[in-house]
């Protein structure tokens, strides 16, 4: 897809990768929201990469204004999943409708590997 437009008809079953369910979630949002403190395994990362490779919007927001990155941090999904989202263009500075960012959710979840990812990122920005 050379013009970087979301795929539509070439996805299996005609599904659109950024189509929303009745709850306002895209498949990427639903995936990250559903992790619920489960360790992120290779299958989850493979699905995440598939969605992102097929133009899933990493900055799509649900009805609360939350993004996939926010849910991955909130649900303690792991630094590798958060790093993959960041590499795909997820904006860590976005805030949900309550004003909380992905970093706030990481701090609240007290997930050390993801906190370390933020710390390393901040150290790189300040250097």
UniProtKB/TrEMBL annotation:
Residues 1-26 are annotated as: Disordered. Keywords: ANK repeat, Repeat. SUPFAM superfamilies: Ankyrin repeat (SSF48403). It holds the Pfam family Ank_2. Residues 1-11 have a biased composition (Polar residues). The keyword Zinc does not apply. Belongs to the ANKRD34 family. This is Uncharacterized protein. It comes from Oncorhynchus tshawytscha.
């Amino acid at each position: 897809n050379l013009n970087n437009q979301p795929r539509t008809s070439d996805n299996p079953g005609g599904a659109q990768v950024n189509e929303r369910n009745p709850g306002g979630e895209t498949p990427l949002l639903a995936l990250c929201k559903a992790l619920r403190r489960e360790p992120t395994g290779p299958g989850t990362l493979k699905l995440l990469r598939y969605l992102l490779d097929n133009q899933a919007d990493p900055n799509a927001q649900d009805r609360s204004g939350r993004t996939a990155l926010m849910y991955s941090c909130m649900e303690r999904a792991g630094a590798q999943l958060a790093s993959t989202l960041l590499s795909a263009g997820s904006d860590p500075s976005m805030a949900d409708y309550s004003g909380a960012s992905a970093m706030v959710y990481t701090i609240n979840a007290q997930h050390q590997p993801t906190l370390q990812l933020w710390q390393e990122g901040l150290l790189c920005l300040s250097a």
